Amino acid sequence: MENTPENHSPSADPSTAPSSDIPKIKREYSFLNIPVAGTGLLSAILVIVLGWAFVYLTTSSFLGQVLSFASFVTPIFGVALVLGFTLAAVGPAFYIGLKRGWKTFLLILIAEFFWYIILLLASYPFAVKYGGHMMNGIY
User: Fold this and answer.
1) How many domains is the chain partitioned into structurally?
2) Residues of the domain holding 60
3) Which of 43, 70, 111, 131 could form a disulfide with 127 if both were Cys (CB 3.0 to 4.6 A apart)?
4) Which of 93, 108, 103 is nearest to 26 (CA)?
5) 26 within a domain of the structure (yes/no)
6) Looking at the domain assignment, is residue 38 inside a domain?
């Protein structure tokens, strides 16, 4: 059967159908969603790596040498540290949240918290055995 103007139904063609006939796509919000879980894991890893870098820099002699002759670096280092942790913790969730909505943003932050706890608990035996002084500031 040909698609002629006589036998053409307007509701059969989505471009000519009224907006009430087009089904709305319902977005599913879940922790098991790959972008939510993946972004939460990425944020948790970034926060942990920044924490390890902070502990290393404050316990190593490198930062002491820099700060001994340049006291103006301390406030800059503090501001950079706060901005770095904020960007690592909220940045990926904010980026995905702009595209998918505020509920996804909140889910990513909650997933990040759970990933952070899981990663810290999983790395504790390794940190105690091999970490030495670097891990004392985090645990």
Assistant:
1) 1
2) 34-135
3) 131
4) 103
5) no
6) yes
